[in-house]
Amino acid sequence: MPVLSSTEKNAYYAKFATTSRLIACLVSEALVKAVYVPCADEEASNIKGLCLLLLPSKTSITGLQDLLAVVPLAGVPILDGSSFMINDIACASISLVDGWDMLPHIYSPTAQTLESVDTITLPPVTNAQATTQAVARKLSSLLSATVGAHQLVDGFDAVQLWTEFATDFEVNDKLMQLIAQELDSSMLYQAHAYNHPKMLPSLESSTVEWEQVILEGHATHPMHKARKSFAPMAPLHPEETNLETPKIRLLAIPKDSMQLRGDFESLSHSLVDIMLNKSASSNATTLREQWANHILMPVHELQLANIQHLFPDVYVFPETNHVTVQSLTSIRSVAIPDLFPGMSLKLCLGIKVSSALRTITPYSTYFGPGFSSGVVPHLTYDPKVLTIERELASAVYAHDDTDIAKHCSCVLREAVEYGTDNEDTIVPCAALVEKIQRPDTDITLVKHVWNLDTDEKRVDFLDRYIDLALQSFLPPALKNGVAFEAHGQNTLARFDKKTGQLKGFVIRDFGGIKVHRPTLLKTAGVDIDVLPDSCVVAETPDEVFKLLYHTLIHSHLQRLIRVLDLHYDGRGWAMVRKHLTRMVPKDHSMWKSFMEDEKVPGKCLVRMKIEELYRDYIYSPVPNVIQYRPSVVV
């Protein structure tokens, strides 16, 4: 077999990265039945077991025709304790399977009959042939029928799997195609990231360098790398679109067409002057006089097509007046540390990144500055451990239709990581759990940069991390009824630049927080100022705990526990329980949610796509990973 190029190899792993996430969602959201089959094979010792996915319409397995996919696993997934019978053999039902559980093979079972196994196209993965043959042997034994290796087509990609699932699930054709396009975009951009690796960061690296080293992104979202544009914006392609160092352009918008919060004009003054002074025939003073009745607002260059299409009274300054910026992990937020120190800009961007259109709604532009000035100073938290980056000002077009207004908006946010006197290494937490710019490795940046090459080092690092993370985010939720969206993209970790020791955390972005108003008013003496129907309002304290669990526990701490090899033996979760026991009173309602309930509401990323929801969430019961103990499988 000829040696495959790195491009072919990266394309294969890009398929796996997206498809494994799709499978994880289908299972956790109970859209398909998943069964665990232990698999001990001397010729493929890397396989712990198999994950068999049934087609949605199937309730039993009699042969390959009942299966959607077969995935060999490197670790035991989280089981629900019930049995599933296959030909009188008791197998275990799966509640949650993670991408990190999976080996890089996703097989599409087929009934095709070929004369020779030699016709199989092997993927660029070590021991691919041995793995495939081991899976075939196990399936033959399980199904009491001969399953040839040629009947397991490796490299099942997300679009193919989604199309087969959606057809069986009876998703309408239009939505099926739209979701397929987003999955295809995710694989395309994932391959591009693999093909263009970054220099590995160090403790000396800037926060921007850490922001842009994200290789795979969201750990469970199948559109984790999607960048999908919509007309009138031109289609995006990774080789042709610069999302890391884009230009920001300048708009002039009539004042009576804008809604401002905070002192937007004053805070943006220095940056706008820099942009105005780039004019060849005028200067900032003259141009400000000319546009005295207008708000001058920066905008992402890719958003101009939407601006010009939707807002005829907006003037776009010439390209001469641009500045080049550096995008952050979210892509729509940008920084210019040398020109705009101590601040970042959150800009609207009408493309889907993951599954959400990255515009900024009037709900967010209104809420953030008021919450920052009126509520943050009264919250219960330790400022030595947690830094809350306030949203100081915002601007949004005044339009009755919020779906139009959200395309012309901007938020000015504090950014201590881009200040002039910062002496810490400040790292987006999502970057810590990223691979070292290679798809075929389990070495992550946290292991590499912090030299966590022994079990003792990993245990010590994780224990301190969990302790400080819970010290940061539990008090506002416990005392004030406020849950920050503390996942790895919004949360940054502060490390001592010389020793690498964790000092605390930084939290940013208030668009997705939850606030139980009666609790806040009772404990802090203040209330939030929100527009009607704002999604930050929690009707019950449980909604606050639900968000904190999903962002901090499931999406944040779980990733670190897994990459530090402290998940399968349960030690990482024992640390979480230890610190929660110390910090959460047993008579507090959070204790039951976190420490007693075996199931918690899990955010349904695929169901939300099928129902075409964004601001409204769907939750499904998933295992409470805080209570995880190692599975015992016969």
TrEMBL record:
It comes from the Eukaryota. GO terms for molecular function: acid-amino acid ligase activity. InterPro entries: Aerobactin_biosyn_IucA/IucC_N (IPR007310), IucA/IucC-like_C (IPR022770), LucA/IucC-like (IPR037455). One of its GO terms (biological process) is siderophore biosynthetic process. Residues 207-433 form the Aerobactin siderophore biosynthesis IucA/IucC N-terminal domain. Residues 460-610 form the Aerobactin siderophore biosynthesis IucA/IucC-like C-terminal domain. Pfam families: FhuF (PF06276), IucA_IucC (PF04183). Gene3D superfamilies: 1.10.510.40. This is IucC family-domain-containing protein. It comes from Absidia glauca (Pin mould). The gene is ABSGL_15556.1 scaffold 17607.
